[in-house]
């Protein structure tokens, strides 16, 4: 079962109510990304992130995994006073994201960086109120210690796709070649749910999100 099939099966009953609060011009960019099968957040995931960000009202946001910029843009619109740092390792995606930020008029508040997430965050300074991680899943557990340092007290860390096609939850058998990936995700989930410095809830949105709040 592929990612879309799994996520669609588990959210199709409520998706008619999950319409992201975004401007039409951003929706057109999302539609184009979907048509090209670019991995951008679907309606339920984006609606959840928007609602969470609206409640937290972050001033500094960090995103790992920009793709073509649709999630960063949505957060920029819902949090008009926030400054967003977003990291992407794919040069083509990065270039397209920068163009999208310019066309949407939000580029002054978005600091887009090209590079590997681990290398980039090691050089970041200060703390963030809201961190959204949607980069290579095998990196999640490796990035966690540094992300905890970058997260301010009461800040929120969201890790996307943590139920990985139902593998981590046991709803689907893990293919042999994906066992290492599933193991890394399970290690991440164990780490954030058992960490005394974090309060974590795993929610079945999209392909699963782990939402952690730093005490």
Strand percentage: 15-25%
**Helix-strand sequence:** HHHEHEHEHEHEHEE
Major beta sheet, strand line-up:
3-2-1-4-5-7-6
Helix content: 40-55%
The main sheet comes to: 7 strands, mixed
- Give the integer mean of the pLDDT values: 91
Count up the domains. 1
Q: Examine the coordinates and then state which fold CATH places here, giving the name of the CATH topology.
A: Rossmann fold
Low-pLDDT parts are 1-8
Overall strand count: 7
The CATH superfamily bears the name: Vaccinia Virus protein VP39
Radius of gyration: 16 Å
Outline of the structure:
The chain has 215 residues and is of the alpha/beta class.
Provide tags for this entry.
seven-stranded mixed sheet; 215 residues; Rossmann fold; single chain; disordered N terminus; alpha/beta
SSE map:
Blueprint: H1 3-11, H2 24-35, H3 43-56, E1 60-64, H4 70-78, E2 83-88, H5 91-104, E3 110-114, H6 117-121, E4 128-133, H7 140-150, E5 151-160, H8 179-194, E6 198-203, E7 209-214
Parallel strand pairs: 1-2, 1-4, 2-3, 4-5
Antiparallel strand pairs: 5-7, 6-7
Helix pairs in contact: 3-4
């Amino acid at each position: 079962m592929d990612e879309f099939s799994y996520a669609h099966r588990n959210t199709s009953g409520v998706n008619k109510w999950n319409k992201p609060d975004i401007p039409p011009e951003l929706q057109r960019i999302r539609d184009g990304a979907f048509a090209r099968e670019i991995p951008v957040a679907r309606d339920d995931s984006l609606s959840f992130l928007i609602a969470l960000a609206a409640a937290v009202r972050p001033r500094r946001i960090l995103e790992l995994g920009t793709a073509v910029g649709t999630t960063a843009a949505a957060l920029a619109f819902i949090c008009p006073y926030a400054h967003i740092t977003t990291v992407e390792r794919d040069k083509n995606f990065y270039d397209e994201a920068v163009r999208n930020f310019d066309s949407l008029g939000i580029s002054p508040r978005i600091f887009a960086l090209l590079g590997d997430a681990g290398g980039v965050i090691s050089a970041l300074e200060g703390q963030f109120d809201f961190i959204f991680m949607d980069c290579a899943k095998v990196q999640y557990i490796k990035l966690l210690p540094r992300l905890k340092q970058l997260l301010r007290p009461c800040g929120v860390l969201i890790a996307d796709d943590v139920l990985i096609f139902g593998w981590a939850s046991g709803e689907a058998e893990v293919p042999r070649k994906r066992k290492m990936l599933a193991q890394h995700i399970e290690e991440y989930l164990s780490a954030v749910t058992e960490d005394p410095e974090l309060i974590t809830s795993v929610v079945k949105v999209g392909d699963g999100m782990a939402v952690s709040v730093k005490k």
